[in-house]
Specification:
304 residues, alpha/beta, Rossmann fold, eight-stranded mixed sheet, 8 strands, 41% helix, globular
Length: 304
């Protein structure tokens, strides 16, 4: 076990009035690394051991639940139609959404404000990568480095999911009534989107049970998905970035096609692209060393 200091769970209020659950690893006087979670993913997707390994790199690691997931604020009084939003976004029509990725980026900045952190290194996976990109575009003075994993640019031409995978993702947004079905739905999605040769049903079931018991809100996941559709392309903003950036993507990702990662690296000036060969849309233990190396390379470039 890595020797790091983890705080007790806390909650705070962001600049725009959202209660955000978070916890931290490592020493507060070390450079801060903000971990931004993906669609429907609670902060526990960044497992304790993963965070501890990052903290061992002399980093102050912060993970948190986005709005509408986990123990942060859920907008239970807002309903959305994710399928209609998908159709509208695919045809280039405006998407009506209760919030956008810019609002979610502001949540992350509100969390840093509450901790008295002026600048941080930002890492995000999947939708977390989209939020992280948005933070870097809209708050460049707050970002030391950016690491984007298995994400995309918001352009409809790149990063599109496999149709069957998208169907599986939409199916998990249908509320289930009993605990067993809730857990199984999560496992089914993990099986479809994850790294196939490394899929462990027992491990996936155990993790799904923890997540379901902690918080279950498929409607919240649908609202997050609509936020993605409503936010559009970040291409112009990415072209203007001047922060050290590392982009990583697996070539077996069925949910966000690798073209999304390649395009991100193409747009961001001097970005480095790192291929994670054989990886799907998950965070397998076997890839942690390579992912952590990519994060530390990005951070290291910021100190040059």
């Amino acid at each position: 076990m890595v020797n790091s200091e983890k705080t007790h769970p806390m909650a705070t209020t962001s600049a725009n009035g959202i209660e955000l659950y978070f916890d931290t690893f490592g020493q507060a006087d070390h450079p801060s690394l903000l971990l931004v979670s993906g669609l429907g993913a609670q902060c526990l997707v960044y497992e304790d051991e993963f965070c501890e390994q990052l903290a061992a790199k002399n980093l102050h690691v912060i993970r948190y639940d986005n709005r509408d997931v986990g123990l942060s604020t859920h907008l239970h009084d807002v309903t959305v139609d994710a399928m209609s939003a998908l159709i509208a976004a695919s045809s280039g029509e405006p998407v009506d959404a209760p919030y956008t990725l810019s609002d979610m980026a502001a949540d992350g900045m509100g969390l840093l404000d509450s901790l008295g952190i002026e600048r941080a290194d930002i890492f995000g996976a999947s939708m977390g990568g989209m939020i992280s990109q948005t933070i870097a575009i809209e708050y460049p003075e707050r970002v030391r480095s950016l690491t984007s994993l298995m994400s995309t640019t918001g352009e409809v031409e790149v990063g599109a999911p496999d149709p069957d995978t998208l169907t599986a993702l939409l199916s998990v947004m249908v509320p289930q009534q009993n605990r067993e079905d809730k857990i199984q739905g999560s496992v089914n999605v993990s099986r479809v989107i994850g790294t196939q040769r490394l899929f462990d049903a027992e491990r996936a079931t155990a993790r799904a049970a923890v997540a379901v018991d902690r918080s279950y809100d498929p409607e919240g996941t649908a609202r997050q998905l609509v936020a993605i559709f409503a936010s559009g392309s970040r291409a112009k903003g990415l072209e203007q970035l001047s922060v050290p950036t590392v982009v990583m993507h697996g070539d077996a990702d069925p949910l966000v096609n690798i073209s999304g990662g390649l395009r991100t690296a193409e747009l961001v000036p001097e970005a480095e692209f790192r291929l994670l060969d054989g990886m799907g849309h998950d965070l397998p233990l076997e890839y942690w060393d390579r992912i952590i190396e990519g994060i530390t390379v990005s951070i290291g470039r910021a100190t040059l």
